[in-house]
Amino acid sequence: MFFYIPAGPKEQERLQLLVHSKSGDTATANGIRESARALDPDLIVDVTRLEDNLELWRTPSRIVAALSGVLGGLAFAARFHRRVRRGFLRRQPAPSRNRYSHDAGRRRTRSDDSFAPASDGPVVIGA
To answer: How far is CA 54 from CA 39, 57, 59, 60, 119, in A?
Structure first.
């Protein structure tokens, strides 16, 4: 069910008519202006493309996206600068060796019971 409610003086300023046409923009705009003049010669008609209307709403989003990118870049640069200043990106000293690393690869003797013998063959335990 549809109800027709005539637009008052305040609503008439914000009325919009969206038209989709297969012909070009200028031909469609001229046709709308001629039709409006035929109905009422004193009627003010502003014809714009939908893309131009959407551009009004896209601009704030683009500004926010650009500012977000700039702030993200500044945050990255500040973090990078702090890491460089603390020395995280400088050459680090070699890691310290643990107590077993100096014995790696050394052949063990029978008297050395603390480590399993390093050999290329199988290891026999309890022989």
So the answer is: 28, 5, 9, 11, 78
Q: What is the pLDDT of residues 37-96, one digit of tens each?
A: 999 888 888 888 888 878 888 899 999 999 999 999 999 999 888 777 766 655 555 655
- List the alpha helices (DSSP H) in 1-127: 9-12, 25-39, 50-86
For 74, what's the count of Cα atoms within 13 Å in the CB-facing half-sphere?
6
The answer to whether 108 touches 118, Cβ cutoff 8 Å, is: yes
Quick check: is 116 in a domain? no
Domain extent for 22? 18-47
